[in-house]
Structure formats: structure tokens, C-alpha cells
Specification:
The protein is built from five helices and no strands. Helix 2 packs across helix 3. The chain has one domain: lambda repressor-like DNA-binding domains (434 Repressor (Amino-terminal Domain), Orthogonal Bundle). By secondary structure, it is mainly alpha-helical. The longest helix has 11 residues. The protein is globular.
């Protein structure tokens, strides 16, 4: 499962800001910030948008073993 801290680590690894990720995923920067800080859970559809924007594979989403993309 993608958690806020995992999202933050992947985003940093990809060299993206919260605003970059929010724009790429079509969500608000507040959504990204509150999820990364653990203050909010997200709907599955939003998590999938974030994963797609980060280029994270379905395998990583499930068990944290693989990241694709640049």
C-alpha cells in the first residue's frame, strides 16, 4: 500500500515538488501535502492518479518492490 511517507520518498527520488506532482496527477497541492504528512487517507482513484503521475508500477503499489520510469 502506498503510504504518505512512501509517496514523499518516491516524489523526492523523481525530483518533483508537491506542486509538480499535484499538477501532473490533476489534484490539489493540499491533497498531496496532507497525504504525505499522514493527516489524510485518499480514495483509491486518487492514489492511482498519483502513482501514474510518478510512473510507479502496479507491483510497487501493492508490495513496494518495483519502481519504473526515469
Amino acid at each position: 500500500m502506498l503510504t504518505g511517507p512512501k509517496l514523499k520518498a518516491i516524489r523526492a527520488l523523481k525530483g518533483m515538488t508537491q506542486a509538480d506532482l499535484a499538477h501532473a496527477a490533476g489534484v490539489s497541492p493540499v491533497t498531496v501535502a496532507t497525504f504525505e504528512s499522514g493527516k489524510s487517507d485518499l480514495r483509491t482513484s486518487t492514489v492511482l492518479k498519483l502513482c501514474d503521475a510518478l510512473g510507479v508500477t502496479v507491483v510497487y503499489r501493492v508490495d513496494g518492490t518495483e519502481i519504473s520510469g526515469p
